[in-house]
Amino acid sequence: MARHVVAKADEIAPGNNKLVTVKGREIGLFNIKGQYYALANKCPHEGASLCRGTLVGLAESDGPGHYRLTRQGELLKCPWHGWEFDVRTGQSWCDPNNTYVRQYAVSVEAGSELLKGPYVLETFQVAVEENYVIIEM
Amino acid sequence: MNIAIREQKADPQATRLTVVDCDIHPQVRSPADLQKYLPERWRKHQATFSNHVRQALSETLSYPRMTPDVARRDAWPTNGGPPGSDLEFMRQQHLDLNGVEYGVLIALRNGGTQRNVDYGSALCRAVNDWQVEYWLDKEPRLRGSLAVHPEDPVGAVKEIERASADKRFVQVLLPPRMDEPAGRRRYWPIYEAAVRAGLPIGMHVGGVGGHPCTAGSGAASYYIEEHHSLVPAMQAVVTSMVLEGVFEHFPDLKVALIEGSFAWVPSLTWRLDKQWARLKEEVPHLTRKPSEYVREHFWFTTQPIDEPDDPQQLFDVMTWIGWDRLMFSTDYPHWDFDDPRYVFKAKLDEPHRSMLFRDNAKALYGLK
Predict the structure, then answer these.
(1) How much of chain B, in percent, has pLDDT values that exceed 70?
(2) pTM of the entire structure?
(3) Residues of A whose CB is below 8 A from B6
(4) Across the interface, do B3 and A21 touch by the CB < 8 Å criterion?
(5) Which domains does chain B have, with CATH numbers?
């Protein structure tokens, strides 16, 4: 398990995502209301690129004729067949136990901490005054 | 820490699989693309009266779709225009990426549902000429489907005779929902012309104008209700064509049902055979059990694939239908696209793979 610096914290605005590649794997990095989440960029159903999907809310109902939209922007909807995944857990809304997207641990570190190591910085110029998003993989 | 950050682009799939895709939807960049193929008389008609189909909101589909233009969210060309309108983008995103050896174009919105049948037939002709110039001349992997207006058999026969001279048209395209069931004799001249031209009939889900998807019990509320109605529409096609005796009259007629799914086929043929044994006196023109006509004359494309919890059960259904009658299709660029790498959830052995993904379609459409 290594820690990979994949983005500057301020380059992904809330509600946006960024596609990164770590160890040859495509990973979608999402900023949901200031929190970062990392999901494999591959739908478990038929393999679509999830970063091309849209962040949606959850349409819920207690019965016919009653509707409410909750959790706006927290569910990732696949660009093909519309499978919805909870970005916070990777679980499918319809089939949470069997269908889920692989998640990776994410943290945000200050540049001043990163410069202490044990990171090895090859492609990133780290500035002391900025924050960075780290994926563990 | 060795991080590459890049924009997403399509990498060729690491797959040796090549496919014949029996359902690709090309689209005009704008309706103006067809103008140059329309005679002046119909250009004026279009400018003055526009379209007339049997539904409200003639420029859209009768049920609101869950994605814009029914398309995959990632299928909008980067250079603008609607999904399916940019050949280079289609090459990158689908033909190259998914190993498409041949792709059969199904041009929807082709004029075949216009109430003014002369205008509709003129649009069909324009769509056929557009397919040749915009797609077939530019991309050797693509094949066309010959558009005709089903309610104008005289015009349809003329167009089959004209356009079928181009051997890149591999079938005559009709919708399963026409003004009458597909086996009625008003459509027989079209079947006769198709047989004479050596072409199968391709029936792609559509022709919804004016017909509730519930087949007579009223208008449904939801798109989810309408989407599966491709099943009863195709069942009505099979039932009508078999029972009206179409295949007794045209023993060489072949019909491909496109985007109609297929898991329903065995139960329909069991039921038809059962009733035929009791009621055949009503249809003495049939010389064989209904299931035998189905087995001999119908082909089925795979998308939108049926997804039973136990994926092996799908293979049982395919065995009952006949492995030589099933042909892979994606429906690109529509949202319910099937990806050739993941569409079958259980392992398929190589001979069956080859039949489904290539050989059956090549045999039906005469592709080398």
Answers:
(1) 92
(2) 0.88
(3) 19, 21
(4) yes
(5) 19-365 (3.20.20.140)
